[in-house]
Amino acid sequence: GYVCGVSADTKGNIYMIAEDTDKKGNMIYVLRCLGDKQKEIWRVSIKADTDFWPLGMVSTDSFTAVLSDLSLFIFDNKKGEQKKIALPDDSMMAKVCTDSKGNILLVGWPDNKLTVWTYDEEKAKFNKTKTFSGNYSYTEGVASGNGKYDFYIAVEEGVFGFVTDGSKPVRIVDFLASNQ
Predict the structure, then answer these.
(1) Mean pLDDT of the chain, nearest integer
(2) Torsion angle defined by CA atoms of residues 113, 119, 124 and 127, in that order, rounded to the nearest 10 degrees
(3) Which of 18, 116, 128, 144 sees the fewest Cβ atoms within 10 Å?
(4) How crowded is residue 41: how many other Cβ atoms within 10 Å of its Cβ?
(5) Mean pLDDT across the stretch 5-22?
(6) Residues 70, 72, 73, 76: what is their CA dihedral angle, to the nearest 10 degrees?
(7) Beta-carbon count within 10 A of 34 CB
(8) Cβ contact 1:18 at 8 Å
(9) How far is C-alpha 89 from the chain's CA centre?
């Protein structure tokens, strides 16, 4: 079926969300883990209470996080076991990514303020980490961190790198001063 999300861990495993049909012919979504030589390691149906549409996904070596319009699902990468995690504010727009340390982040805009939550594996919930001051409006352009920054966003003015320790965001690419 139609593939609507792909991510990978650092071990080379690939995780894919795809449309499928159940035994009764109903459309469902499945998450598949593919290992070496694209061999399927596991496949699970995504258990959602209502209509499900994936808005984003990201993988670490331990977990795969799938963000839908109403919930966030965390899957154990060894077995595919699923946990449904409540969003901190179910009325906000959000994106999912990882920080430079491999933690799963939820980047959202409650009350139009850029806010970041970090996934707490032991408590299976997101803890508010930081709200950034400044005019960082909602964007589809959210990317995972890579060492220097915990995550990136692209807005009209450019690309900004963020660190969740409280330091000020840094404009890495200035769209207004270049022809980018």
Answers:
(1) 88
(2) -40
(3) 128
(4) 16
(5) 91
(6) 180
(7) 18
(8) yes
(9) 16
Question: Look-up: residue for tokens 């799938």?
Answer: 66
Rounded to whole angstroms, the Cα distance separating 38 from 55 reads 24
- Indicate the Cα dihedral angle 94, 100, 104, 107, nearest 10°: -10
Say which amino acid occupies 36: D
143's tokens: 């990317």
108/46 Cα distance (integer angstroms): 23
d(CA 168, CA 88): 24
Give the amino acid at 74: I
Q: What is the pLDDT of residues 104-135, one digit of tens each?
A: 999 988 888 899 999 988 888 899 999 998 87
| Closest to 29 measured CA to CA, from 38, 37, 20 | 20
Burial of 149 (0-12, 13-18, 19+ CB in 10 A): buried
